[in-house]
Design brief:
- The structure is a homodimer of 239-residue chains.
- Chain A is an alpha+beta fold and 239 residues long.
- The first copy, chain A, folds into 2 domains: 3-94, Winged helix-like DNA-binding domain superfamily/Winged helix DNA-binding domain (Arc Repressor Mutant, subunit A, Orthogonal Bundle), CATH 1.10.10.10; 108-238, Endonuclease Chain A (Endonuclease, Chain A, 2-Layer Sandwich).
- In chain A, 52% of the residues lie in helices and 19% in strands.
- In chain A, helix 1 packs across helix 2.
- In chain A, 35% of the residues are buried.
- Chains A and B meet through helix 1, helix 2, helix 4, strand 1 and helix 5 of A and helix 1, helix 2, helix 4, strand 1 and helix 5 of B.
- The structure holds a DNA duplex (30 and 30 nucleotides).
Chain lengths: 239, 239
DNA sequence: ATTTAGTAGTTCTTTATAGGAACACTATAA
DNA sequence: TTATAGTGTTCCTATAAAGAACTACTAAAT
């Protein structure tokens, strides 16, 4: 349902489910008393009152003072921006104050969960300073469109090996693009000949991939990609 | 303590306290097995194992696969950025999909909590398109330095009424700045002659302020500020 | 007297934390 | 070689804290 997915998103910003419900109710109805909110949402009044004051504490609702106190929802953009700004501040603090990491070679790491893998891919792309080889289905590359454009904007060489002609013009013209056979769900990525990632992505929590900075592995991995490109050149021709 | 404040910040990014502890431990020690983490932190082993897999799910730890599985902390910047990027995505979704707000006049709203009030001030400054009048202690203005500079950068007229000469050169030269008597904790703000905020800020959760878009109030409020400025001009002279 | 507004308190459920028990594996000392 | 200690992991129970549901009570406004 539309409704419940909105509620989930709101929860990500730190509300409980009940608070999210009440926030949404305020959002739709405007100024309401606790009593009215309870009527609208079916949530017991006692909880409504405590949730309302908690929403006010979190900066998600304002109090419209009068003879009787009514609450009003803080505009969603304002609320989200506040939260995000806060996290940025906390991030800066953490960067300064966290005890230094014991630097260590990156061996072979397993990353689990589709979202985390995609995050890693994005972070790798952002680290790229020279060249990026990416082999993946066209649909996955489409998902990364923005990031890839930024990678290009930072003057990286970008080589894409995929299974369908890409929709994006800039991507098509500014990257070297090989169109080969069906990629399925496999993703392979090499950054600056220093880091590599490979895995089968189904979009699920159970997805796993291998990430490494080991030279030997990367050398072999690069050869494999290079061969794939040659093969495509020989059979269908470079796109 | 340093330690515990770092833990709290990490919790803001969605970890439980225990997970934060373990994350920090991984951060300091590098690659560790669950067993080792338990030894280091004193957390029971069973909980360590579940917390570790939960950290991996959240994208805060990677698995360094080997004969025995070791975990390694995801660099803090990477982790924070992922979270913030996610929230930005969720924000966009919410902006598009949330049922439209019932537009209503802004009456008199009470905002509670120092942090929320400061957030509102920041949001008001960002909305400004013409002019900003701000009366507050020099220390509070210092806290808002960045935001005020951006307000100026957007070609707004900025009038500051405060109690000490400001440190920031740009702020001093590009805004109209009145130095009067001790401001204490009172803050007054008018944006584009349309919105006003006033309150006493002690930096606590109990702080409250009044925010309004009511014309009558703003007119009176503006007069009050104007008088204050005249008074300063007559006694000490404009700075 | 009934609707509205608000507070207080109880119960139930879920999540977070704490710890024990069991099991498998690997060193190494007797 | 086998007993013993140490390591790595999973599963299961117990307690504590947070969230949610619901009931009861007060008090003003209609």
């Amino acid at each position: 349902m539309e409704e419940s997915s909105i509620l989930e998103k709101l929860c990500l910003f730190g509300m409980t489910r009940q608070e999210a419900n009440i926030y949404l109710c305020l959002y739709q109805c405007g100024e309401l008393t606790g009593y009215e909110v309870a009527k609208q949402t079916g949530i017991s009044r006692s909880n409504v009152y405590s949730a309302l004051s908690s929403l006010a504490d979190r900066g998600a609702a304002y109090l419209a003072e009068g003879s009787t106190s009514k609450y009003i929802a803080v505009p969603i953009e304002e609320f989200c921006n506040n939260k995000i700004r806060q996290l940025n501040t906390e991030k800066e603090f953490l960067l300064k104050n966290i005890p230094t990491i014991k630097s260590q070679e990156i061996g072979y790491l397993t990353i689990t969960g589709y979202k985390n893998i995609k995050d890693k891919v994005i972070n790798m792309l952002r680290e790229a300073r020279l060249r990026v080889y990416l082999s993946a289905s066209a649909s996955f590359i489409q998902e990364l469109e923005e990031e890839l454009l930024e990678t290009l904007a930072r003057k990286n060489k970008l080589v894409l090996i995929t299974d369908q002609v890409l929709k994006n013009d800039v991507l098509r013209s500014e990257s070297v693009c090989y169109i080969g056979e069906e990629k399925g769900n496999s993703v392979r990525l090499i950054i600056d000949s220093s880091y590599a990632l490979t895995g089968e992505l189904l979009g699920k929590k159970e997805d796993t991939c291998l990430y490494t900075g080991q030279e030997n592995f990367i050398r072999i991995f690069k050869d494999a990609l290079r061969n794939e490109m040659r093969l495509i050149e020989l059979t269908k021709g470079e796109k």
